[in-house]
Design brief:
Largest sheet of chain C: 3 strands, antiparallel
CATH topology of the largest domain in chain C: 50s Ribosomal Protein L17, Chain: A
Strand order of the largest sheet of chain B: 1-2
Chains: A alpha+beta, B alpha+beta, C alpha+beta
Radius of gyration of chain C: 25 Å
Strand order of the largest sheet of chain C: 1-5-2
Order of helices and strands of chain B: HHHHEEHEHE
Number of domains of chain C: 2
Shape of chain B: elongated
Low-confidence stretches of chain C: none
Structural class of chain B: alpha+beta
Mean pLDDT of chain B: 79
Number of helices of chain B: 6
Largest interface: B-C, 29 and 24 residues
CATH class of the largest domain in chain C: Alpha Beta
Distance between the termini of chain C: 72 Å
Number of strands of chain B: 4
GO molecular function, one term (chain C): structural constituent of ribosome
Strand content of chain B: 5-15%
Helix content of chain C: 40-55%
Distance between the termini of chain B: 75 Å
CATH superfamily of the largest domain in chain C: Ribosomal protein L17
Number of strands of chain C: 5
Protein name (chain C): Large ribosomal subunit protein bL17m
Oligomer: heterotrimer
Helix content of chain B: 25-40%
GO biological process, one term (chain C): translation
Radius of gyration of chain B: 43 Å
Number of helices of chain C: 6
Structural class of chain C: alpha+beta
Family (chain C): Belongs to the bacterial ribosomal protein bL17 family.
CATH architecture of the largest domain in chain C: Alpha-Beta Complex
Order of helices and strands of chain C: HHEHHHEEEEH
Keywords (chain C): Ribonucleoprotein, Ribosomal protein
Low-confidence stretches of chain B: none
Chain lengths: 293, 182, 193
């Protein structure tokens, strides 16, 4: 039976209306959501598929048999030795099909590829490592602030670089209350114990389709402990690699003046400093943070 | 010197005298319990307390009560003590990890796995270095320049001033070519 | 030229000289002071010939100042000196090594100061000595690596390059720069007052 034209038009309008009206709300980032997305992206972990990954080291390449979509580069590095795996910060993945890319260490491997470990002492990719470290510090701050604060808060991650001298996290939901020095010291203590716990940065590389479906704006979904965030770049392997860490100050920012920008500075554990140097760095970061807009 | 020695001897004797006297005393006879049949014929013998003239005499008399092995230690027991881990082995507490290869070695030495690599390449270069024939007048009178497979030929000044060693293998990644800093 | 006069005129050897002479033994010679010198002579010859040698630690420590002195003689007094020639003649068993010494090794150190050698210590090694009636005999040794600087071999110890791009370096450099600027400003403001 022929659908009357008006009916057809109405149908078409309806379908387009659905397409436009259905702006997917940003997903609630929780641990269960993380597992759900992981299941979506990487498939059923019950169906285990083996894949050969070659780990490139100074001496020779070692081929390793691991599970596709389940094992991460970290598991591959563990086959060399524990210190090698612990030292890894980022990894360069060169798949047999496709272009090479840089990824986090705890990101599952999807295809047969060669992996190259990047540490804090790898001279070639230092910029990348620095960026990833700064990004990770912001994420960790957001993670333990979320755990520490009993108010429902949301986070924004303004772009920053090492050259700024500090990293920052924008906290939404505090209603314009800046942290007092007492609160800052409590937060610092809590943060340091949180970091010492050696929490791994679990990473899912989310393809565009699933990202749109689920309302994730970003390439990667990251879980630290129980907190989940989205970012657009690789992160370091574990909070254990963070050495000196300090949240210095918070101030009001944003158009509404209600967002609290929290600034801090940190150095990797592999690059130890004297307390004098650290005090200089912290003071500098503090000054720069206050001066910035 | 002699006075000091005499003083020491006197002090020793003075401190030992009371001990000799104590050990010299014979214990008193048991007190009589007043029985009718008490034989008190034997008078309580009040002998003079025995004092030893020297430590030597005391030891001779009492050496029988001093600590002494009861049984001979068997050979297995002796051997166990001689070769026990506490005597043969000492734990090393000055071990460090090589930052390059994570091999463990004492802190005052270099990493032997890293050195093994270096030693292997050094031996190859040495073999090439020693391949000169002194009977035909070849001498070790020039500096050595090592050229690996796949590297560009050495510039002319090098060839004239130095002796070029051609290696068959490619340059290993860890043996960086030193470039002169200007 | 008297040996004492020459030794006194030379600069100090930049290497520790042991005060307990090791009783070095080798096959075929009865241990004595002369035998010790013979062993040292062989070690010095081998070091000059191969430019990097592995030997027992105590021998390497003993031989090192002798190698240094020989090179120093060549550097300070030149090849035509009577005393230097005599020393080279005695210490270097292979005579073409005297040429090598004067034409290759000594020119390296014309403008450098002692020490001209390096000594590295390896962890105790367990090495096979010999086989006695099908029984392998292994012994433990403390080995040292004695090398003359400027050799063409790969370096024993890689110097870790200074990275000025690591996080700590960037932050610290920035902090120090700003610190300096602050101090300068404060100084200037005080001056202007």
């Amino acid at each position: 039976m022929k659908v009357p034209v008006r009916g057809l038009l109405a149908l078409r309008k309806a379908s387009t209306a659905v397409a436009t009206a259905e702006t997917i709300p940003p997903a609630v980032l929780s641990s269960e959501f993380f597992d759900h997305v992981r299941h979506q992206v990487y498939g059923d972990s019950r169906k285990v598929d083996k894949v050969v990954v070659t780990v490139k080291t100074e001496a020779k390449d070692k081929p390793v048999l691991v599970n596709r979509n389940v094992s991460t580069s970290f598991h591959c590095f563990n086959h060399i030795n524990k210190q090698f795996a612990d030292d890894s910060v980022l990894v360069e993945v060169i798949p047999s099909v496709g272009g090479a890319y840089f990824s986090s260490v705890n990101q599952p491997i999807q295809d047969q590829s060669e992996v190259r470990k990047i540490g804090f002492d790898t001279s070639e990719n230092l910029n990348l490592v620095n960026e990833a470290y700064w990004r990770s510090c912001s994420l960790v701050t957001a993670a333990f602030l979320k755990e520490a604060l009993d108010v429902d808060v949301d986070f924004g991650f303004p772009r920053g670089s090492i050259q700024d001298g500090y990293f920052s996290v924008a906290v939404k939901g505090l209603n314009g209350n800046v942290f007092t020095p007492d609160e800052l010291s409590t937060i610092n203590r809590f943060g340091k114990s949180y970091i010492r716990d050696d929490k791994a940065f679990e990473v899912i590389s989310v393809p565009k389709t699933i990202a749109e479906e689920s309302g994730i704006n970003g390439d990667h979904l990251i879980r630290i402990g129980h907190q989940v965030f989205t970012t657009d770049g690789p992160v370091i392997r574990s909070t254990r690699q963070i050495g000196r860490f300090s949240i210095l100050r918070s101030k009001l920012t944003g158009k509404s003046g209600k967002d609290v920008l929290v600034g801090g500075v940190s150095i990797p554990a592999k690059q130890p400093t004297s307390s004098y140097s650290w005090s200089l760095i912290a003071k500098n970061a503090n000054q720069k943070f206050s001066k910035s807009n | 010197m002699n006075e000091a020695r005499e003083r020491i001897l006197i002090n020793l004797r003075q401190s030992v005298d009371p001990i000799l006297r104590i050990f010299g005393h014979r214990s008193l006879p048991p007190p009589s319990l007043g029985f009718a049949l008490d034989v008190s014929g034997s008078q309580p013998v009040q002998k003079s307390p025995i004092t030893y003239g020297s430590v030597r005499e005391m030891i001779d008399d009492f050496s029988i009560v001093f600590g002494v092995p009861k049984y001979r230690t068997s050979k297995p027991k002796k051997v166990t003590r001689k070769f026990s881990f506490t005597r043969l082995l000492q734990p090393l507490d000055n071990l460090v990890t090589c930052p390059t290869c994570s091999n463990i070695h004492p802190s005052d030495t270099i990493c032997d796995s890293c050195y093994a690599k270096v030693h292997k390449l050094t031996s190859e270069i040495k073999k090439k270095m020693m391949q000169y024939n002194p009977y035909v007048g070849e001498k070790q009178d020039k500096e050595v320049y090592v050229k690996f497979k796949g590297e560009p030929k050495a510039p002319a000044e090098v060839v004239n001033g130095k002796r070029v060693l051609e290696m068959e293998d490619e340059r290993p990644t860890w043996f960086k070519k030193l470039t002169l800093k200007k | 030229m008297s040996a004492h006069r020459v030794a006194a005129s030379l600069p100090r050897i930049g290497v520790t000289i042991g005060h307990v002479p090791q009783k070095l033994k080798t096959g075929g010679i009865e241990p004595s002071r002369r035998a010790r010198l013979e062993v040292l002579r062989r070690i010095v010859t081998r070091t000059v010939r191969e430019e990097r040698v592995e030997l027992k630690w105590n021998r390497a420590v003993e031989a090192r100042p002798y190698v240094e002195r020989l090179i120093q003689l060549g550097v300070e007094r030149g090849p035509l000196d009577e005393y230097t020639a005599e020393m080279m003649e005695w210490w270097l068993l292979e005579k073409d090594l005297i040429t090598k010494m004067h034409e290759v090794i000594v020119p390296r150190f014309q403008n450098n100061a002692s020490p001209f050698t390096s000594l590295f210590r390896l962890p105790p090694q367990r090495l096979q000595q010999f086989i006695q009636n099908k029984r392998e005999v292994w012994k433990r040794y403390d080995i040292g690596v004695l090398e003359i600087h400027g050799n063409p071999f790969p370096p024993v110890q890689e110097e870790s390059s200074e990275q000025s791009d690591s996080i700590l370096d960037i932050l610290l450099a920035d902090a120090l720069r700003n610190h300096q600027m602050d101090l300068q400003e404060r100084l200037n403001s005080e001056k202007s007052k």
